[in-house]
Specification:
The chain has about 475 residues and is an alpha/beta fold. It has 4 domains: about 5-270, TIM Barrel (Alpha-Beta Barrel), CATH 3.20.20; about 285-345; about 350-445, Immunoglobulins (Immunoglobulin-like); about 455-480. The chain is about 40% helix and about 20% strand. The protein has 15 helices and 17 strands. The strands form 4 sheets. Strands 1, 2, 3, 6 and 7 form a 5-stranded parallel sheet that branches. β4, α8 and β5 form a beta-alpha-beta unit. α1 packs across α5 (about 105-115) and α7 crosses α13. It starts with 6 loop residues before the first helix and ends with a helix. Mean pLDDT is about 85; it is low at about 1-35.
Length: about 475
């Protein structure tokens, strides 16, 4: 079963990690006297994310990223040096947690220092947009509990970062009904009284800190500071193509500006969202609909697992990664990849191919091996049918439970009607009847007359041997007489 850790649970792990790796340095907040000489107030969200993906980060990937010069190591330097609000991709935390006792000390140290930051927001897996995940029909929307479980955190800790696209008019009702409690949102789609991210300031800062940007950092910092003098301004750096060197330069200029105070950015309670958010469509709606069609089957297939989350959570992770890239070029191709990986996961339960089979009797038990590459036992219906009338299947449907990461063998009873060639077609379905991608065809040759011929031949041989024995015995007795 996938591990779900609440914020308190993360801190419990921190205590253990700290005992292993030694003392941990925790960054402090804003100096107590910093606010007295300011006339500009800013709040900065720094997204600590990795490239969107549905798989856990590997040990090698994490080790390289936290090593000196690695991207995650650079993130930690910025977080501890500047008073930013950290938006942490839970894919990173889940990947480290999954390593368990095999996690290297430097990886544990990085995690410990990052999650003990005072201004920390836990994002869903790969920063998936909850509104995109909720764009499916009511029965198949991804709930906060499901997304949090797939992300390895508690539902009460997860904070969705809402994009400025595909916002339904009943956003508050939808998100609340799905169990989401807090979100990050910009003033482009929120017009209430609460303070939220400035869309204009975020765009300005993100443009200056993007890879390949030639924007003047000092000019950008001055512009942001000027905005914060009129009213406290919160902004977020875009996680897409974020150049950490340019981000550090911007943060350094703002930190050295004595007229600027950096304050924490607070997420918005879902209950305070208005129900009049604008609806903004995007070009990938058709592709997204294709992804949801596939995910609906993923959800149905997961019910065959003894622990359904073992099958469902990886697909939610992949969908969440997809939901974070709706505005990035190539979305349609990523949907194609999502569908392909889904079909591959579906084929983790399969029928083992067999060689040609010959039936020499009027009745036979055809052996079939079923394979389950999932980590949990699954229960499936094996359905068998003959393409020819010369063979009938007397038990066409069998309910079979296959252990996790293992295989099991079943037999299919056959009744022979006449001799010749035939083919058996087999497929697997969930107990509810949802077909799996595994379909197999087996060629069989029926030569049932050999059973009678063999019996007759054997009888003739036996009678002949007995006859010869009798003749030999009689001759010996005559000779003896």
């Amino acid at each position: 079963m996938s591990k779900v850790v609440s914020r308190s649970g993360l801190f419990a792990r921190v205590a253990v990690s700290a005992a292993i790796i030694g003392a941990v340095t925790v960054a402090t907040g804003v100096p107590s006297g910093a606010a007295t000489a300011t006339d500009s107030t800013l709040g900065i969200v720094l997204p600590v994310t990795v490239a969107a993906g549905g798989d856990l980060l590997t040990l090698d990937e994490l080790t390289e990223a936290v090593a000196p010069g690695g991207r995650l190591a650079h993130f930690l330097e910025l977080v501890e040096k500047y008073d930013v609000t950290v938006a942490l991709d839970s894919r990173i935390s889940a990947s480290i947690t999954a390593l368990g006792d095999t996690a290297p000390a430097d990886v544990l140290a990085w995690h410990t220092r990052m999650i003990t930051e005072p201004n920390l927001v836990l994002l869903p897996w790969s920063n998936g947009d909850p509104l995109v995940l909720a764009a499916d029909d009511d029965a198949n929307r991804v709930t906060a509990e499901e997304l949090a479980g797939a992300s390895g955190v508690s539902a009460i800790d997860i904070t969705g970062w809402l994009s400025e696209s595909s916002l339904p008019a009943d956003t508050a009702e939808v998100l609340s009904g799905l169990g989401y409690q807090r979100v990050l949102i910009s003033d482009a789609v929120y017009s209430g009284e609460r303070h939220v991210l400035s869309s204009a300031a975020s765009a300005r800062a993100s443009a200056a800190t993007a890879e390949g940007s030639t924007a003047n950092i000092s000019v950008t910092a001055a512009s942001l500071a000027a905005t914060g003098r009129n009213v406290p301004t919160w902004f977020a750096l875009s996680p897409t193509q974020l150049d950490l060197g340019r981000a550090e330069a911007l943060l350094r200029v703002l930190a050295h500006d004595e007229s600027v105070t950096i304050e924490p950015v607070a997420s918005l309670p879902v209950r305070e969202l208005t129900n009049a958010l604008p609806v903004v469509s995007f070009d990938g709606d058709a592709a997204l609909a294709e992804a949801f069609t596939r995910f609906r089957k993923d959800r149905s297939i997961s019910t065959m697992g003894e622990d359904s989350t073992v099958l469902l959570y990886p697909r939610i992770r992949a969908l969440s990664a997809l939901a974070s890239t709706t505005r990035i070029a190539g979305f349609e191709s990523r949907v194609t990849d999502f569908v392909a990986t889904s079909i591959h996961a579906e084929r983790a339960v399969s029928i083992n191919p067999a060689s040609a089979y010959t039936v020499l009797a009027s009745q036979a038990a055809f052996p079939v091996t079923l394979i389950n590459d999932h980590a949990t036992p699954v229960t499936v219906n094996l359905q068998v049918r003959s393409t020819s009338g010369i063979v009938t299947v007397t038990d066409a449907t069998q309910l079979v439970t296959i252990p996790g990461n293992s295989s099991t063998q079943v037999t299919v009873p056959l009744q022979v009607v006449s001799n010749g060639s035939a083919q058996l077609e087999m497929d697997l379905r969930t107990p509810e009847g949802v077909p799996l991608a595994s379909v197999a065809r087996f060629d069989i040759t029926v030569a049932a007359q050999w059973e009678a011929m063999t019996l007759v031949s054997f009888s003739v041989v036996v009678v002949t041997i007995l006859g010869l024995g009798v003749v030999r015995t009689v001759r010996r007795r005559r000779v003896a007489a």
